[in-house]
Every structure is written in C-alpha cells, then in structure tokens.
Amino acid sequence: MRQVVLVIKDDSALLDISSLSAWAKTVGFEIKLVCKNLLSLIDRKLKTPIDLLIIETKVAEYDDYLLLKKIIDQDICKYIALCSREGSFASARRGIQLGVDEYFTLPFDEAEIKDFLIRINESSLSVQEKIEENALHIFSLLEERRDVSDTLRRLYKDDILSAVLNRTVEIIFAKKDWLDLYVNESDFLFDETVDESEYRTRFQHFCDDYLSLEPPDSEELKSLITHILYNPDGDLRQITLAEKLRLNKSHISTLFTAKMGIRYIDYVSKVKLMRAAWLLKNTDLRVSDIATRLYYKDIAYFSKQFKRFFGLAPSEYRIPDKYQFNI
C-alpha cells in the first residue's frame, strides 16, 4: 500500500481531499498521516519513505519552501504535489523548480487526482518492471558463469542498482533454496546503512563463494551435487554416495575434477566448512558438537581445516562482527 501524507492547514480543504472517492477507486493508496506544517512532518523522523506528499501552498511560505527543498534533497518522498485555493502561478513555478511533480487548484478535481494517482502507479510499475528485467538478466549471467561487472556499472548510473541486486538475491534464494543451509538471505540484501560500493563487493563475494558450489551445466553431476548441497550434515563419503546414487566411485572422481576443477574430497570439505560457518553464527552448538554433526571424527583436525579455509579458528569466527561474509 502506498503511503500518502497530507500537509494541509485548511480544514475544509482537508475534508475535501480526504473524502474523494479517487482513493478508493485507485488501488494502492492510503492516507497515512495528516500534518499542519512541514516542520512537524520532518520532526516525526518517519522510518519509511513517503510515497506521495500533498502540500497546501498557502502553508508553504518562504521557510517552508526551504523545508520542502530539504525533503526533496533527502529523498524522503517519492512524489510531491502542491495545491492552493488561489491557483498561484508563482507557487506552482517555485514548486516545479524544486522538483514537485504536480500542482492542483482547490477545490480538488476528482478526475485530476485520480489521473495523477494512476500516473504514479504506471510510473512505479515501469520501474518495477525494469528492476525485474535486470534482476533476471543478472541471474542468467550468473547461471552461465559470465561476468556481471559491466551490468552493475550501468545499473549504478541508472540509480537502481541496490533494488536490482536485492531482487536478484531474492530470485537466487528462491531458485536455490539449499542456500538457506549455508547463508542468510538477509545478509546480502542492501539497506541504507551499507555503502553501495561495499555492497557490490559483498554481492560479488556471495556469487563467488556460494554460487560456485553448483557446477556449470552438467547433467551427470546434477543428482550428486544436489544431494551434497541439501545434505551437508550427512555422510558424504565418496563410497557412500556412489552406492546410494548408484554411481561408479572412480567415475565420480574423474567427473568432479573435469567439471568442477576440484577434487571430490576437497569439494565436500568446502561444503561442510561453509555449513559449519553457518552453524557457528546461527546456533549455540558447541564447536565439538558441530564437528561431530558434520562427520568430523577429530575435532582438532576440523578446527585446523576451518582456520585454513576461513583464516580464523571456529571460536573466533563465532564472535559477532569479527569476520563478515567474505570467505
């Protein structure tokens, strides 16, 4: 639901706009908040962006135009409309110069309001379609093991990079639900506290470290890899899986080296250590219990392998914020 905020001092104008049937007829809009002036709106320090802000211009004296500029500069609101009973050309021109999207003369015209709301919906839809299209494109590039850096640079210029990468992560986790055993989706979603260049680096690590667990197209390896990725806590010895999946043990070794560029034993070790990292961060299991759970008979050997792979001992890795995301 799109959040609408009204900054209207005139009670009759407020009643007028609040009672318009356009709100009910145009799906997706809800009047969330009413303020008498812009300063009170800014003081509220809203946690989520406003979708539409409608301001009565007689409220917007010189100081309020400075506040309006602040709102626009801080990207607090996606769409802004001004309105006045007098139909002031000067107010309209000043608002447009600041970046206001629409200007209405009171009393409100039902058709004009509805048309504006529809235009917002259509504009937002086109942006969402662009995000979805680019997210699917990046996903397909990753599936083909192709470089995505040029695409990321282009999206950065278009100012939709964070939205596209978030959607890409959502698609990846939906299509590869085994990832939930190794990493939390929320760790790779962009938020305003993370610098965009840092986030791009984090996203690239995610692709390199986790998506590389799946081979490029290989029907011969598909059942084996699928079993391993969905069962990291199980007995993944080569002889065990060869019998379970009715595969030739020596053929597995040859195929793994050829298709994955890594020995079977090293691949399984990588999968189990990634699973161990998730268990350390997301459970209270003791290191010894995690080692046992992952079929390591020697805890000292497990700790040595973990440190070699992650650069930290299991107990150090568990410390919050000591080591974030990178492998």
CATH architectural label of the largest domain: 3-Layer(aba) Sandwich
Enumerate the spans where pLDDT stays under 50 for 5 or more consecutive residues.
none
CATH topology of the largest domain: Rossmann fold
Helix share bin: 55-70%
Quick recap:
By secondary structure, the protein is α/β, with parallel strands linked by helices.
Task: Characterise the protein shown here.
The chain is of the alpha/beta class and 327 residues long. The chain folds into three domains: 2-108, Response regulator (Rossmann fold, 3-Layer(aba) Sandwich); 125-211, no CATH class; 218-317, Homeodomain-like (Arc Repressor Mutant, subunit A, Orthogonal Bundle). 57% of the residues lie in helices and 10% in strands. It has 16 helices and five strands. The chain has a five-stranded parallel sheet with strand order 2-1-3-4-5, sandwiched between helices. Strand 4, helix 5 (89-98) and strand 5 form a beta-alpha-beta unit. The protein is elongated, with a radius of gyration of 28 Å.
